[in-house]
Design a protein that fits this description.
Elements lengths: L1 H10 L3 H20 L3 H7 L5 H29 L1 H21 L3 H11 L1 H17 L3 H28 L10 H17 L9 H5 L4 H10 L1 H21 L1 H8 L5 H26 L5 H21 L5 H29 L5 H8 L4 H16 L2 H25 L2
Helix pairs in contact: 2-8, 2-9, 4-5, 4-6, 4-7, 4-17, 5-6, 5-7, 5-9, 7-17, 8-14, 8-16, 12-16, 12-18, 12-19, 13-18, 14-16, 15-16, 15-19, 16-17
Length: about 400
């Protein structure tokens, strides 16, 4: 019966929904196929220091996040497709420039623009999924699939890049440009199947950016959710940066094997368990799902704080627990925002939610300061406390809606 229900739901996905889902997969896979080698190129070809590379990448990422906050409102005011086309075109141009640039300033400028397409694409694509699927359960399944495909793309992209022998070749950025070109063509072909009423009357009700800021300031419930999600992302971000730095400083034996094992464990747990967990929690409220995921997140940080630095299987176990939490929380955060957003402000709310990604941007800085000031135990205890604080803020948001 469950399989029949899921099959029925998938059967209601429009062609445009599939463009959003599969487009995100191919773009993310091609992005990670070459992006991990960017630091190699900046060092080996252009001679940038580690600090200079960090400033360039972090500055570009923070600008892209802030841009997404503004462009979400633009997508509500002027239509989803205007922003989606812009994202695809900027992607084609930026990654082509990365492939062909032969001077440092042009390459750095291309890096700056290459961070923009994902941000420009994110809020309008999620809002369009919501527009296309009137049934709430269908929207939930689509958002779960979106997160699943993005994870699969991020996992196999670097592996495919290594298999293809790219290994930091600058011209390999052209593959991502082609992915964005394919996405642009798919949008052009499938836009005609979209709901034709990108309702002028409804768009007329969409406030200007200044008015939207005033609305946002008054939506206390949503602001609590944003702050909670920022903390959640700050905690998850430690697994990508500070944990590796901690293990490296401690001179853990077979570090490369351990780090590779942690990455594989994270990907496998999410890919294998996301939909079984969705099935188990299908009748839970969204708040209960977030509380469960947040509680597991706290447990993972306590496990890391208590694990001996050379405890190989302890790290594997802690990352597996962290990944269970991630599989629960990430897609459900999107569902929570979708439910909170008024129908005429979907992209604005998703764009504002993109600010939470600053948690990932600041994770290396916060983690580095805590490691310098204390040690690994201090770092992970602090993150456990941050996780508990996030749970409290989600509870405040729930109370504000009552």
């Amino acid at each position: 019966m469950e399989l029949t229900q899921v099959s029925s739901q998938i059967g209601r996905f429009t062609p445009l929904v599939w463009v959003m889902l599969l487009g995100n997969f191919f773009v993310r896979a091609s992005y990670y196929m070459v992006w991990p080698f960017l630091a190699v190129i900046l060092y080996s070809k252009y001679g940038l220091s580690a600090t200079e590379v960090g400033v360039l990448l972090t500055g570009s990422a923070v600008f892209a996040v802030l841009l997404g906050f503004y462009t979400g409102n633009l997508a509500d005011r002027f239509g989803r497709f205007a922003l989606l086309y812009t994202a695809a075109i900027v992607g084609v141009l930026a990654f082509t420039a990365l492939a062909l640039a032969d001077q440092l300033w042009t390459f750095c400028l291309a890096v700056f623009f290459a961070c923009m397409p994902r941000t420009l694409w994110d809020a309008p694509s999620k809002a369009l999924l919501s527009d296309e699927l009137s049934n709430g359960q269908d929207r939930e399944l689509a958002l779960h699939l979106l997160y699943f495909l993005v994870n699969v793309g991020a996992a196999i992209g670097p592996l495919f890049g290594l298999w293809a022998g790219l290994n930091g070749e600058q011209f390999s950025f052209i593959y991502t440009a082609f992915a964005y070109l394919g996405l642009l063509l798919s949008l052009i072909l499938k836009q005609s199947s979209a709901v034709k009423n990108e309702d002028n009357a409804q768009q007329a009700q969409v406030p200007s950016f200044k008015s939207w800021l005033a609305i946002l300031r008054q939506d206390t419930r949503f602001l609590w959710v944003l702050l909670a999600t920022f903390l959640v992302y700050l905690v998850y971000g430690q697994g990508d940066s500070s944990l590796v730095q901690y293990l490296t400083r401690a001179e853990v034996p077979e570090l490369a094997v351990l780090v590779s094992s942690l990455i594989i464990t994270n990907s496998l747990v999410i890919v294998i368990f996301q939909f079984p967990l969705l099935h188990v929690m299908r009748n839970w409220s969204i708040q209960s799902r977030l509380y469960c995921g947040g509680g597991i997140l706290v447990l993972s940080q306590v496990m890391m704080a208590l694990n001996p630095v050379d405890g190989f299987w302890g790290w594997i176990g802690a990352i597996a627990v962290l990944s269970f939490s991630e599989a629960i929380m990430f897609s459900n955060i999107n569902i929570h925002i979708d439910r909170m957003a008024p129908s005429h402000l979907k992209a604005s709310y998703f764009g504002a939610a993109g600010l939470c990604s600053l948690g990932f941007a600041f994770a290396p800085l916060v983690g580095g300061v805590l490691l310098d000031w204390g040690n690994g135990a201090v770092l992970f205890i602090a993150m456990a406390i941050a996780s508990v604080k996030a749970l409290y803020l989600y509870k405040l948001a729930e109370s504000a809606s009552e």
